[in-house]
């Protein structure tokens, strides 16, 4: 059978009508598009992936995605049925010089061909080259870090890795020169990082005390953002700025004493453009505002919020909202000792948090009239009884004041060992205020010294945390 019988070419005609009152359209044409197939259109707005239209195929073989306004410059994605293409179709839309271009797919090799739009063709080829080169570098890295590798073998592989990295660097330089003043060149330029000094094989990221770590992180601080024009809006409608910010922070050890300074440097650079600042500050904040203590530094998260408050371009109403976020963080910050309290059980016996003798104390704030609480509590009780830590106690704390309703709930249910049902009978402890409880259920985990190690986590995060602890024993 001839190879042509295995090759399915899918054609997507993307038509942009940029006249003032006309529609902009993406027309998909493919023999593989069947009636009732669904295609989804996504765009990036200020660094955030935004779902656009979901379109149903009504006529087999074609589909049209339309917009009453012209498509703005940025990064777009189209999700098509896997029979059409195995993966998401990524498109760069420039400030359109071309009103129409065609995309075709080779289903046998799962490749994308751009017939009338060289920018997307080049971008697709660039991404493919980067991916294959990174795969090759990873193989070399694995080989170079093997237990039986000699020093001369390490040096040889280190040279090979740097050659692969230089290959990408040189490709990027040539593309930047060939396609100046385009979204394509802005994306590539922002990724174009000079070769790092020192041995690629040394694990300098793990040990912040090593001299090599300091050399590399200083190099990153000086070079990582050189290719980004913070004054320009060109990268706003791509995923590059938030993903680059998160990647940048991940390259520093979480215990690095200069991490706060590193974050401030980046915020200061981005503050020349309020929109770019917002995208980067949000990405940085999300990198540090995590519920699991090993990934969390609330002090830096708060510093990022305070930095935003200092910016003259941030409106007063938003500064007030930021102030509320800061107050939430400052209530029982991760790593700090939890605020003590004295609560009672259904028989009026008093329990003091600091008197609970346990390696872990789980605080489970709830209300029997909260439907979500009633879904989560049975799961939590089941897990705690069967797989939960034997060196932990649960304090299930009712946060409201309907004594009859709460005692009825306590009486009608059963509980595993080391599970206490408590409440603030007269509201004297002001539990909601002390722990800033805004939604239910709210779950905290404290260590044996009553320091907060998990804050406002959900049920899955709770059991995942203890699963990791069990594996590490």
Short description:
With 473 residues, this protein is an alpha+beta fold. It is built from 13 helices and 16 strands.
Report on the biggest sheet: 5 strands, antiparallel
Number of strands: 16
What structural class do you assign from the helix and strand content? alpha+beta
Question: Helix count?
Answer: 13
Strand order of the largest sheet: 5-2-1-8-9
Mean pLDDT: 85
User: Into which percentage range does the β-strand content fall?
Assistant: 15-25%
Low-confidence stretches: 1-22
Blueprint of the fold:
Elements: E1 9-15, E2 24-29, E3 38-45, E4 48-56, E5 62-67, E6 74-79, E7 88-93, E8 100-106, E9 111-114, H1 118-144, H2 151-178, H3 183-191, H4 211-223, H5 240-250, H6 259-270, H7 274-288, H8 298-309, H9 316-330, E10 342-344, E11 350-352, E12 360-366, H10 371-386, E13 392-398, H11 403-412, E14 419-423, H12 431-434, E15 442-446, E16 452-457, H13 459-471
Parallel strand pairs: 12-13, 13-14
Antiparallel strand pairs: 1-2, 1-8, 2-5, 3-4, 3-6, 6-7, 8-9, 10-11, 12-15, 15-16
Description:
The protein has 473 residues and is of the alpha+beta class. 39% of the residues lie in helices and 20% in strands. It has 13 helices and 16 strands. The chain has helices at 118-144, 151-178, 183-191, 211-223, 240-250, 259-270, 274-288, 298-309, 316-330, 371-386, 403-412, 431-434, 459-471; strands at 9-15, 24-29, 38-45, 48-56, 62-67, 74-79, 88-93, 100-106, 111-114, 342-344, 350-352, 360-366, 392-398, 419-423, 442-446, 452-457. The strands form four sheets. The chain has a five-stranded antiparallel beta sheet with strand order 5-2-1-8-9. The chain has a five-stranded mixed beta sheet with strand order 14-13-12-15-16, with helices on one face. The chain has a four-stranded antiparallel beta sheet with strand order 4-3-6-7. The radius of gyration is 28 Å and the shape is globular.
């Amino acid at each position: 059978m001839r190879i042509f019988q295995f090759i399915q070419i899918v054609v997507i005609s993307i038509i942009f009508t940029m006249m003032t009152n006309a529609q902009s359209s993406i027309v998909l044409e493919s023999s593989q598009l069947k009636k009732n197939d669904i295609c989804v259109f996504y765009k990036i707005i200020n660094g955030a992936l935004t779902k656009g239209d979901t379109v149903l195929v009504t006529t087999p073989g074609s589909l049209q995605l339309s917009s009453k306004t012209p498509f703005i410059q940025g990064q777009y994605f189209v999700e098509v049925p896997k029979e059409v293409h195995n993966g998401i179709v990524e498109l760069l839309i420039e400030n359109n010089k071309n009103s129409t271009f065609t995309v075709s797919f080779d289903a046998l090799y799962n490749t994308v061909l751009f017939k009338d739009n060289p920018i997307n063709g080049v971008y697709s080829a660039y991404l493919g080259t980067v991916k294959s080169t990174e795969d090759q570098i990873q193989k070399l890295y694995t080989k170079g870090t093997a237990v039986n590798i000699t020093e001369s073998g390490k040096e040889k592989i280190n040279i090979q890795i740097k050659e692969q990295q230089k290959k990408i660097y040189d490709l990027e330089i040539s593309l930047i020169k060939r396609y100046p003043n385009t979204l394509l060149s802005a994306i590539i330029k922002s990724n174009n990082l000079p070769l790092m000094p020192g041995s690629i094989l040394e694990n300098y990221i793990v040990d912040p005390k090593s001299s090599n770590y300091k050399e590399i992180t200083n190099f990153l601080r000086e070079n990582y953002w050189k290719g980004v024009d913070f004054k320009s809006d060109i990268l706003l409608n791509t995923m590059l700025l938030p993903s680059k910010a998160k990647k940048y922070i991940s390259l520093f050890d979480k215990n690095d004493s200069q991490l706060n300074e590193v974050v401030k440097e980046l915020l200061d650079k981005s503050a020349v453009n309020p929109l770019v600042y917002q995208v980067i500050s949000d990405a940085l904040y999300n990198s540090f505002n995590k519920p699991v203590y090993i990934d969390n530094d609330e002090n830096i998260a708060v510093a990022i919020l305070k930095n935003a408050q200092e910016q003259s371009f941030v409106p007063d109403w938003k500064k007030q909202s930021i102030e509320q976020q800061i107050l939430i963080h400052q209530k029982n910050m991760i790593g700090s000792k939890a605020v003590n309290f004295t609560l009672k059980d259904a028989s009026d016996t008093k329990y003091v948090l600091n008197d609970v003798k346990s390696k872990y104390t789980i605080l489970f704030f709830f209300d029997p009239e909260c439907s979500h609480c009633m879904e989560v509590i049975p799961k939590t009780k089941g897990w705690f009884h069967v797989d939960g830590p034997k060196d932990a106690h649960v304090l299930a704390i009712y946060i409201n004041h309907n004594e009859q309703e709460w005692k009825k709930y306590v009486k009608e249910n059963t509980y595993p060992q080391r599970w206490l049902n408590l409440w603030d009978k007269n509201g004297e402890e002001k539990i909601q205020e002390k722990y800033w409880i805004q939604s239910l259920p709210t779950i905290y985990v404290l260590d044996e010294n009553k320091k907060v190690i998990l804050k406002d986590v959900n049920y899955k995060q709770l059991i995942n945390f203890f699963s990791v602890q069990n594996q590490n024993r």
